[in-house]
């Protein structure tokens, strides 16, 4: 990836986009403007789905599933086509990455790996699992044969956010397709372009019409229609807790579809005085919150530092944070790109203002930058003297804002770590193996990093505890969401 290649794609005209339903484009009745976070300017539009558009997509998925053209295809055939899709994603990686950055503002150095390359790896991973997912023979009496079959469920709806649409979309779509289901995907209205491109690549890879559909538009219309549909069997969602609760209500009001939710977090990153490398801990902790301008579900947004090193460590981290290069997300030297939208920028700035009013101290950042560009940028922000009662400690900002709280001893660190409603991720920095294992066992979260933060791959699951949701993305465990188990009890 070279800067010159990125520049060739920077201003490419993107025509108005339509839905992708039943293997072809389907124009909407109206369109939504797409603003680029880079400069705040409209550069294309997407179709705004109606309930009728969503129903059409769901019907196409149901028809394809009932026909067996995908669900009943030989595992080796489905595997072949998903592997081809992975190859096509990789072949179009730079084009997809630049398109995505123009749409959502992630810095290209991160987006290239985290979006198309990650999505290609995900489709490849689940393609390889297709012919390795066995049923079971139960341990029964000699005159009985008990079999457990794994069957595709039917129609899967996936609703994904704007921060990493290709990566998170692949986490849901790839295992759903690998299990033999048909899919209707709704991207966020502020980051739909790469997933529409993905649908066309899937068609090119040979996925039959109706097996993978994409409808774009608002959550209030398209998302609600999917959640209330009587013909959607599974709904997989990544986003806010407010919307997650509403989706559960819609499932109860309709057909009791299974709903799997990944609802973000307020993840504690705990640094003990015996951490083996405090310089590394400071650098990794800074980038663990400020990459993609803090718009990461597992971001380590609560830094808990042992009191004995709190002042020194805060100074180290603030120095690193203030020197992170924020700027044009399509520049390879940029380390943190733009905020996704004007409203998200305003939300992040509001959190900082209220934290300062409640007694927090802004060490660095806390303000909008590069306003002259028209884009939405915010300086990496570090807040000290944050207590557990403050809003900034309890609520997810989803922006480049880090709060620092000191503690004395392991018990207080655990109390602070577990004192929010969330439980998605955590980090622990310590030179003690015993302490590391105690903390892993006691922290209430789905992921605990030790002497690092972030970076886990497809071999392990990602899922939350408490109000961070249920179900898991990534790893072989993700397939479980998209299978029905059927028991055959045979008297011999």
Low-confidence parts, pLDDT < 50 over ≥5 residues?
none
Fraction of residues in helices? 25-40%
CATH fold naming of the largest domain: Aldehyde Dehydrogenase, Chain A, domain 1
Which CATH-level-2 architecture of the largest domain? Answer: 3-Layer(aba) Sandwich
Major beta sheet summary: 7 strands, mixed
Helix/strand/pairing category: alpha/beta
The separation of the N and C termini measures 62 Å
Strand order of the largest sheet: 14-17-18-13-12-19-20
DSSP summary: helix tally: 15
* Average pLDDT number: 97
Number of domains: 2
**CATH H-level superfamily of the largest domain:** Aldehyde Dehydrogenase, Chain A, domain 1
> Which geometry do the CA atoms define?
globular
Sheet-strand content, in percent, reads 15-25%
How would you name the oligomeric state of the polypeptide chains in this document? single chain
Count of beta strands: 21
Give me the Rg, rounded.
Answer: 23 Å
Q: What is the C-level CATH assignment of the largest domain?
A: Alpha Beta
Element layout with pairings:
Layout: H1 3-10, E1 19-21, E2 24-26, E3 31-35, E4 42-47, H2 51-67, H3 75-91, H4 93-104, H5 108-129, E5 136-137, E6 144-152, E7 155-159, H6 165-178, E8 182-186, H7 193-204, E9 212-214, H8 219-228, E10 234-238, H9 241-253, E11 258-262, E12 268-271, H10 278-290, E13 302-306, H11 310-322, H12 342-357, E14 361-364, E15 368-369, E16 377-378, E17 381-384, H13 391-394, E18 401-407, H14 410-417, E19 425-429, H15 433-442, E20 447-450, E21 483-491
Parallel strand pairs: 7-8, 7-10, 8-9, 10-11, 12-13, 12-19, 13-18, 17-18, 19-20
Antiparallel strand pairs: 1-2, 3-4, 5-6, 6-21, 14-17, 15-16
Helix pairs in contact: 1-4, 2-8, 3-5, 3-7, 4-5, 5-6, 10-11
């Amino acid at each position: 990836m070279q800067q010159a290649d990125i520049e060739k794609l920077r201003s490419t005209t993107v025509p108005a986009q339509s839905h992708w339903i039943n293997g072809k484009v389907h124009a909407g009745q109206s369109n939504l403007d797409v603003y680029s976070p880079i400069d705040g300017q409209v550069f294309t539009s997407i179709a705004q789905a109606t309930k009728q558009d969503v129903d059409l997509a769901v019907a196409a998925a149901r028809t394809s599933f009932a026909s067996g053209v995908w669900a009943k295809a030989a595992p080796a055939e489905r595997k072949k086509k998903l592997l081809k899709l992975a190859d096509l994603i990789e072949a179009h990686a730079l084009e997809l990455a630049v398109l995505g950055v123009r749409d959502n503002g992630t810095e290209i150095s991160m987006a290239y790996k985290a979006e198309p390359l990650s999505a290609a790896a995900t489709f490849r991973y689940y393609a390889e699992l297709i012919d390795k997912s066995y049923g079971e023979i139960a341990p029964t009496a000699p005159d009985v044969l008990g079999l457990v079959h794994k069957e595709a469920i039917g129609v899967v709806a996936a609703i994904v956010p704007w921060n990493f649409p290709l990566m998170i979309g692949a986490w849901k779509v790839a295992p759903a397709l690998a299990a033999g289901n048909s899919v209707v995907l709704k991207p966020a209205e502020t980051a739909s372009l790469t997933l529409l491109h993905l649908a066309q690549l899937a068609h090119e890879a040979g996925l039959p019409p109706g097996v993978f559909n994409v409808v774009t538009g608002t959550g209030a219309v398209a998302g609600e229609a999917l959640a209330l549909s009587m013909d959607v069997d599974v709904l997989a969602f990544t986003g806010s807790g407010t919307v997650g609760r509403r989706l559960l209500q819609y499932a109860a009001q309709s057909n009791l579809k299974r709903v799997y939710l990944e609802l973000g977090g307020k993840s504690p990153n705990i640094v003990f005085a015996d951490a083996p490398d405090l310089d590394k801990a400071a650098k990794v902790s800074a980038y663990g919150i400020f990459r993609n301008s803090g718009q990461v579900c597992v971001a380590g947004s609560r830094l808990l530092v042992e009191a004995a090193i709190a002042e020194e460590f805060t100074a180290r981290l603030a120095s690193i944070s203030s020197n992170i290069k924020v700027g044009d997300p399509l520049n390879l030297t940029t380390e943190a790109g733009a905020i996704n939208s004007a409203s998200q920028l305003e939300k992040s700035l509001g959190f900082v203002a209220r934290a300062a009013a409640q007694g927090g101290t802004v060490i660095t950042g806390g303000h909008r930058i590069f306003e002259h560009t028209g884009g939405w940028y915010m300086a990496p922000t570090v807040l000290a003297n944050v207590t557990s009662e403050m809003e900034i400690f309890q609520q997810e900002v989803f922006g480049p804002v880090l709060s620092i709280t000191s503690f004395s001893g392991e018990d207080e660190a655990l109390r602070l770590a577990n004192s929010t409603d969330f439980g998605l991720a955590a980090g622990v920095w310590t030179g003690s193996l015993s302490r590391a294992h105690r903390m892993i066992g006691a922290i209430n979260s789905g992921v605990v990093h030790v002497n690092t933060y972030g970076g886990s791959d497809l071999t392990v699951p990602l899922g939350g505890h408490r109000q961070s949701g249920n179900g898991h993305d990534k790893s072989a465990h993700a397939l479980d969401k998209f299978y029905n188990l059927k028991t055959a009890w045979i008297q011999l």
